[in-house]
Design brief:
By secondary structure, this protein is an alpha/beta fold. Helix content is 31%, strand content 16%.
Length: 475
């Protein structure tokens, strides 16, 4: 049965100022103060779990737990291991060993056992000479969240778990780094963004292109007006799956895989390689396809460049969607989403464009993809970038999160902005389903004059006994 421990909000910024103690220590003091009250509830809901012993004094390092240990989870583990200001004290994955019978390519194994081995080996070789005295390893994320001295949680699960893991981590008093898209469903995104605001928590979304200097340069070129008034945005994303990406043979879960927990709040579909590790996003039960996998990158930069990070389009229409000829997946192979913004700006999010982002104005254009940038006037690329507001940001994305955990400043990729960046994708699915354009109110985040579309957008159905995040409406 799903369990929750409801803790009071994060302390206000002024209450975290403790003489001779770091912000991480202040947060631990706050959480320990609640431990007596929560002890009875926690004991009833979870079996006792051992307390993780940090390598150094609690005030020295931010303690981090990692949920989800696939490819992206390992990338984040490596980034955390390189940062001397944090300590991974707990890891969680429902599978001991991903790709034991690896059906695609070659490469490293993932899962909780390989992750634990990697972390222990890294800390054993640490030049500091201090011994790593404990790493808590589990298959149920609720046990990880019960660790008493946890400061922050990294969520690198499949999309259908993003909201619930993040929500429960916030309830446990933790700051959160969550992979993109920030949530699987639109209503989940609104709930998470509001809860982070209400608790004054720190949250970073893994839209790491916001920390890439090339994309920062594109944003500055547009914001400085070098291309003139913006007229058109082309957001190029990869195509979706056109055929099953692995075996479609239905199999029974291995003994070391908790498949029911892997499905969690989503429908429990028959287990097959084509819809499990790596390929799960092909089905709407678990992800939004390649569209929702990538929209949080390039469309996020587009919103940043034209300064609609906390706004959005006025109209959205999905056109020319095609789907694979298989019932294994139900996300589009080819897709186009047309948007209109204020000031006459039009946007087209499509796999028909080169992967990356091109913004065209009255005086020229600029285009960027990972590792490459070009412009109609090459001189723009050589000029010294002028800093406007928080731009440019070139710090490693994970390091920015950890620094903000200490400083209590907003991260470069906060959840409300990340939610707005993927909203055109959510609206695109609704538009395609109903075969009509949608009128969007970015201020209220509602579809105008279309109750049927509004109901589809706000729908959240969790498999019993899991329950969706329930925002506090008491004020």
């Amino acid at each position: 049965m799903a369990c929750r421990t409801f803790l009071p909000p994060h302390p206000k910024k002024e209450s975290t100022k403790v003489t001779s103690a770091s912000p991480a220590t202040a947060r631990r003091m706050s959480r320990r103060g609640f431990s007596t009250l929560a002890a009875g509830t926690a004991a009833a809901l979870l079996k006792p779990v051992p307390r993780v012993l940090a390598r150094t004094a609690p005030s020295d390092r931010i303690t981090v737990g990692v949920i989800g240990l696939g490819s992206r989870g390992f990338n984040l583990v490596d980034a955390l291991l390189r940062n001397p200001h944090c300590q991974i004290t707990a890891v969680c994955d429902v599978d001991r060993f991903h790709y034991r019978d690896r059906p695609w390519g070659t490469g490293p194994a993932y899962g909780r056992d390989p992750a634990a081995a990697r972390i222990r080996e890294s800390y054993a070789n640490d030049r500091s000479g201090t011994a790593h005295r404990g790493l808590f390893v589990c298959s149920d994320y609720r046990e990880l969240l019960a660790q008493p001295d946890l400061d922050a949680v990294v969520v690198a699960t499949p999309d259908h778990w993003h909201a619930l893991c993040t929500w429960d981590a916030l309830q446990a008093g933790c700051d959160v780094y969550c992979e993109k898209p920030v949530t699987h469903l639109f209503a989940e995104g609104r709930a998470i963004a509001e809860e982070v605001r209400r608790r004054q928590a720190i949250m970073q979304v893994g839209s790491q292109q916001r920390s890439d200097p090339l994309f920062g340069r594109l944003v500055e070129i547009v914001r400085q007006g070098l291309i003139g008034a913006v007229r058109r945005i082309e957001v190029g994303l990869p195509s979706g799956y056109d055929r099953p990406q692995g075996s479609t043979q239905v199999v029974s879960p291995r003994p070391d895989l908790d498949y029911d927990q892997w499905c969690g709040p989503a429908p429990r579909l028959p287990l097959m390689a084509a819809r499990h590790h790596r390929w799960w996003r092909g089905h709407r039960a678990y992800g939004g396809g390649v569209l929702m996998d990538w929209i949080g990158h390039h469309n996020d930069i587009a919103h940043r460049a034209v300064d609609v990070e906390r706004s959005g389009p006025l109209t959205v229409e999905a056109v020319d969607w095609t789907f694979p000829e298989t019932d294994i997946y139900n996300t589009p192979h080819h897709y186009t989403i047309r948007c209109e913004y204020a000031n006459g700006i039009t946007s087209e999010i499509s796999d028909s464009h080169p992967i990356g982002l091109k913004i065209t104005g009255t005086d020229g254009w600029v285009y960027a993809r990972r590792g490459h940038i070009e412009a109609s006037d090459p001189r723009w690329l050589k000029e010294q970038t002028k800093v406007s507001g928080r731009l440019p940001h070139t710090q490693a994305h994970v390091n920015n999160f950890l620094d903000c955990v200490r400083s209590r400043q907003e991260c470069v990729a906060p959840p409300d902005i990340a939610h707005r960046s993927v909203t055109p994708g959510h609206l695109g699915y609704v538009s395609w389903t109903l075969k009509r354009p949608l009128n969007w109110d970015p201020d209220s985040q509602t579809i105008r004059r279309d109750p049927e579309a509004a109901a589809l957008l706000s729908a959240v159905a969790y498999r019993s006994p899991w329950k969706p995040p329930q925002p506090d409406t008491t004020g």
